[in-house]
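Worked example 2:
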Amino acid sequence: MSYEVIEEGSFKYMETGPEDGEVLMLLHGLLGALSNFDGIIDHFSKTHRVVAPILPIFELPIREVSVSGLVEHVKEFVEHKGYDKVHVLGNSLGGHITLLFVLAMPEKVSSAILTGSSGLFESAMGNSFPKRGSYEYIENKVRETFYSPEVATKELVDQVFAAVNDRNSAIRIIATAKSAVRHNLGDKLHQIKAPTLLIWGKQDSVTPPFVGEKFNELIEGSKLVFVDECGHAPMMEKPDVFNEILEVFLNDIKTTKAKVESV
């Protein structure tokens, strides 16, 4: 699926769906792309204003390359667009940014959806990449992200391989990953009051199931749903199951809101 990428100043993003629909904002991971959200965009653009900013991991000034720098970008983007309230959904690093955005701008948040989120614990490629040109290593690493290796298409592997073999990009990836590890949120999660949904792959090897359980414990009132035969990116590997879980959650919020407003 291809998307029209809109460029406005320092922002690049895609947006689709009814203008009067509730905003569902999607935040990709460190090596993610808009295509990671194909299933969500296709399903929810019928009812929601779906927007996905491209995180400027490779565009920010090198001194600003960090989780905090990316959160500032998202905050500025939401203000630029004039969104009143957003349902914000993040995968992996995008989940980490989601959490920090919710903590920084709770008045702008309708709900938070985390899937394979960093912020407590993650096991990725380590602090450095193998020597340049090691396609087989990268291919294996990408495949390990999923329960079903075939989800790691050649297009996806090529995308990751290109990023880690560009010296400038690799430096930024490592800097961002190190920043995420340093920016542990264990002592802040109790501050989150927005309705929160955790969708976790039972076979996630990057942020294993115990991570989802810990998020569930620390975020009061959060709901945790495990997806079987699924790795680190449930929205890619089990899109129909993921969308069904998310739709029930969003409908419940809408129903609760309607009841409160009618009182």
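The first helix runs from residue 38 to 44. The mean pLDDT is 91.
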